[in-house]
Each structure stands twice: as C-alpha cells, then as structure tokens.
C-alpha cells in the first residue's frame, strides 16, 4: 500500500462499490470534497477514496513545487510529454490503492477510477494496464498520453469508459478526449457500447452540474445501482 492516507467519504448505506478519485495538477483532494460529497449523497452504496498527489517541481511552472502526479512541460500536452519515473511511481501508487481496497473486501469489478485532467490521464493509463478487472473509468477533461500507449496491455475488452469534456476547454482542448476515444475504439477495439463521450457547451477546464449529473447516471448504470428516491440539486 502506498504511503499516505487518502481522504475517504464512506458510503451512507451498505458499501457495494468504490470510486478512487484522482485530482488534477496543482489541486488537492480536499478541494474536491464538496463535489464528491454531492455525488456520494446520490450514490449511497459507493465509498469514495481521494488520494493526494505528492508535491514536486513542475516544469510548466518554471520548476515551482506543485501537487502533481507527474511532471509536465506544456499545456496543452505535447505528444512526447512523458516523465517515466514519476509516472511509474504514480501508477504504482494507484495500483496500491486498488489493492488496498481489494484487501478490505472490495470486488475489483466494482472499483471505478475517476480523475480530472492530469488525474484523468493517470486513471486511464492505470485502467488500461492493470491486471485487475476493474468496473470502469471516468475521465473528466483528460487524455491518454501517447508515450504511455506503448505500455498498454489491454486485458479487459469490455471496460466501460466515460469521457466528459468542455467545448471551451483551452487547457486540454476537447480534441484530446476525441482522439483518446478514437484510440480506444479503433486501436484497442473497445466496443462502442462501452464508450460514453459527452461534450458540454460553454464549459472550460472545469466541471459543471450537467456533467456531474451525467457521471452519477453513468455510475448508476455500470454498477447497477438504484437512483435515490428524489433528485438532489447541486
């Protein structure tokens, strides 16, 4: 199990699934607590695990220390953007958190990886390389690093994937999700029925209510969870 204790939001009913949420560059897990808590209320059978990325020098910010899963030199990311050591370490850490949940009794097929931006890129890489049979992955404003694709060994052709992206995102333009979906469909041959891609009008490099509602609905579908008695306003 990796060092450090993730922030946890326990299920309010019997736990039947787990979501591991990976934040973006320069962010903290605490900053996402309110958004995740809102989803947790609507998904009472899910326990949420929010790890915190380590602080490291980031080339994009002239070497300043920021929370980051791996170094990045430019945004939008270049095709050759890849830091082997930090990426390997972060992948290992996520694998450790998955394994920790399995040790706590979770079925890996009911573990979902979810991430925003850099966290989404990491989540996608782990989901597409892990030997665990995961339940799915959610990418919010993410991408699949090109260098990482060389390491992908696709072990589950029916992995459900949700990609959400704002049409006005200039940090990670929508094209990055579109191209990732094409890679999943045309290269990895994932069935289109397991690929969900949503674009959001007027949305930049962030999330909004419509996207979170879609994520909740998608999680209910892939995990076969009952909706709450009444919809809650975000």
UniProtKB/TrEMBL annotation:
<dbReference type="InterPro" id="IPR003140">
    <property type="entry name" value="PLipase/COase/thioEstase"/>
</dbReference>
<keyword id="KW-0276">Fatty acid metabolism</keyword>
<comment type="similarity">
    <text>Belongs to the AB hydrolase superfamily. AB hydrolase 2 family.</text>
</comment>
<comment type="function">
    <text>Hydrolyzes fatty acids from S-acylated cysteine residues in proteins with a strong preference for palmitoylated G-alpha proteins over other acyl substrates. Mediates the deacylation of G-alpha proteins such as GPA1 in vivo, but has weak or no activity toward palmitoylated Ras proteins. Has weak lysophospholipase activity in vitro; however such activity may not exist in vivo.</text>
</comment>
<dbReference type="GO" id="GO:0008474">
    <property type="term" value="F:palmitoyl-(protein) hydrolase activity"/>
</dbReference>
<keyword id="KW-0378">Hydrolase</keyword>
<dbReference type="GO" id="GO:0052689">
    <property type="term" value="F:carboxylic ester hydrolase activity"/>
</dbReference>
<dbReference type="InterPro" id="IPR050565">
    <property type="entry name" value="LYPA1-2/EST-like"/>
</dbReference>
<keyword id="KW-0443">Lipid metabolism</keyword>
<dbReference type="GO" id="GO:0006631">
    <property type="term" value="P:fatty acid metabolic process"/>
</dbReference>
<keyword id="KW-0719">Serine esterase</keyword>
<dbReference type="Pfam" id="PF02230">
    <property type="entry name" value="Abhydrolase_2"/>
</dbReference>
<protein>
    <recommendedName>
        <fullName>Acyl-protein thioesterase 1</fullName>
        <ecNumber>3.1.2.22</ecNumber>
    </recommendedName>
</protein>
<dbReference type="InterPro" id="IPR029058">
    <property type="entry name" value="AB_hydrolase_fold"/>
</dbReference>
<dbReference type="GO" id="GO:0005737">
    <property type="term" value="C:cytoplasm"/>
</dbReference>
<feature type="domain" description="Phospholipase/carboxylesterase/thioesterase">
    <location>
        <begin position="12"/>
        <end position="221"/>
    </location>
</feature>
């Amino acid at each position: 199990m990796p060092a450090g204790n993730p922030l946890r939001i326990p299920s309010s009913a019997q736990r039947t699934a787990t979501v591991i949420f990976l934040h973006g560059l320069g962010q903290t897990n605490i900053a996402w607590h309110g958004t995740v808590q809102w989803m947790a209320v609507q998904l009472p059978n899910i326990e949420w695990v929010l790890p915190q990325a380590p602080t490291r020098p980031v080339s994009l910010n002239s070497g300043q220390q920021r929370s980051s899963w791996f170094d990045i030199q430019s945004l939008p990311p270049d095709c050759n953007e890849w830091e082997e050591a930090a990426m390997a370490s972060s992948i290992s850490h996520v694998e450790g958190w998955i394994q920790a949940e399995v040790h706590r009794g979770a079925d890996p097929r009911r573990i979902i990886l979810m991430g925003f931006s850099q966290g989404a890129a990491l989540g996608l890489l782990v989901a597409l390389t892990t030997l665990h049979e995961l339940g799915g992955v959610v990418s919010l404003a993410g991408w699949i690093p090109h260098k990482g694709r060389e390491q992908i060994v696709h072990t589950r052709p029916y992995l459900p994937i949700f990609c959400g992206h704002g049409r006005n995102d200039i940090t990670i333009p929508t094209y990055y999700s579109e191209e990732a979906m094409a890679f999943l469909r045309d290269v990895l041959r994932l069935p289109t029925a397991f690929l969900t891609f949503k674009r959001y009008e007027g949305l930049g490099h962030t999330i909004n209510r419509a996207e979170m509602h879609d994520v909740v609905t998608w999680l209910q579908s892939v995990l076969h969870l009952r909706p709450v008695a009444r919809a809650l306003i975000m």
